[in-house]
Amino acid sequence: MEQEQVRLEEERALQDIESAKDETSLESAYNAHLAKKGALSALMAQMGKMEKESRAAFGKAINEAKQKVIALYEQKKAELAKKKLEEKLKKEKIDVTLPAKAKRIGRINPYYQIIDEVSEIFLDMGYEIVEGRDVESDRFNFELLNVPKDHPARDMQDTFYIGNGVDLLLRTQTSAAQAHTMLEKEVKTPIRMISPGKAYRRDDDDMTHSHQFAQIEGLVVDHDISLANLKATLELFAKKMFGEKREIRLRSSYFPFTEPSVEVDVSCFNCQGKGCPMCKHTGWIEILGAGMVNPKVLEMCGYDPKEWSGFAFGVGVERVAMLKYGIDDIRRLYQNDIRFLKDYVGK
Ligand code: DAH
């Protein structure tokens, strides 16, 4: 009699589960038969009132029935989930003909573009690239460049001092790399190098000045180097950098580490020398300082000036970038604004 009850309940449960058309009706079949308050659990509750002898057989029958019902429930659940997914996939067809989303490609900051371009030009001429250091000693930044303590040229190059505030500083010019290069050569051999890097000075921070900026230093030391070599080299550089038609002119100037010293202008690449706001209507744009290496510097750095001579130059990276790309404010070069890179570079 009790066994029959189990058989009937099993049949009903299997039928309900089998006929479930969706997840909701499957769940209500589960609640009706398998849940704590379902029919199979209710049968279990009857066991307490039964004779000891029939109790075991009854319990076994319920458990077997329960296993069958659970197995069908799991199978049905998986089937319904699969069916649901298939229907969803049918509805959500992907349109492969739609154009893909455009990739956002980054750009090199003009600051580094200029350094790369200048480096390439000088590498082609057989120069090597020397890495300088941002933190320098007073000796390399000033003394070895013929700027002794109390030299008036120091006034314009106040900087950030480190440690005891006397010896270590953030370099004010990449020219410090000149002294390192010469002194590091145990056997004195010819030098052809450029050294790009950052320099620091106490300065106003405004549209054209920054307390941090970049320079590209150049140094050539060999036998019989003359001002003519300097001029020819810089002319070639100006043409490669700003166009074949460019000319340069040298104006006399003063730097403690060069003698004679010059400032180098390039004919305006914006107006071809006719005169425009970029060249302040002069037809010329100043791009760098240069000169013949002062014999005192050669001597201090271990190159006998009777035997060796050389020229040096220093290019202001931001200045060239601003002129070449028509950038109005130096601060834009450091702000990492992607809109700036898109608007200004490569125009
Ligand atoms: N160091 C100079 C400056 O900071 C730039 C410079 C001028 C470098 C003449 C040179 C040079 O090597 O020969 O203004």
Question: How are the elements arranged and paired?
Answer:
Elements: H1 2-18, H2 23-33, H3 39-46, H4 52-91, H5 110-124, E1 128-129, E2 135-137, H6 138-141, E3 161-162, E4 168-170, H7 176-184, E5 191-200, E6 212-222, H8 227-242, E7 248-255, E8 258-267, E9 284-293, H9 295-300, E10 309-316, H10 317-325, H11 338-344
The structure holds 3,4-dihydroxyphenylalanine.
* CATH topology group of the largest domain: BirA Bifunctional Protein, domain 2
Order of helices and strands: HHHHHEEHEEHEEHEEEHEHH
Number of domains: 2
Mean pLDDT: 91
Bound molecules: 3,4-dihydroxyphenylalanine
Report the sheet-strand fraction: 15-25%
Q: In CATH's first tier, which class of the largest domain applies? A: Alpha Beta
Shape: elongated
User: Biggest sheet, in brief?
Assistant: 7 strands, mixed
Order the strands across the largest sheet as they lie in space: 1-5-6-10-9-8-7
Low-confidence stretches: none
| SSE-based structural type | alpha+beta
CATH architectural label of the largest domain: 2-Layer Sandwich
- Span from first to last CA? 95 Å
CATH superfamily of the largest domain: Bira Bifunctional Protein, Domain 2
- Rg from Cα: 42 Å
**How many helix segments?**
11
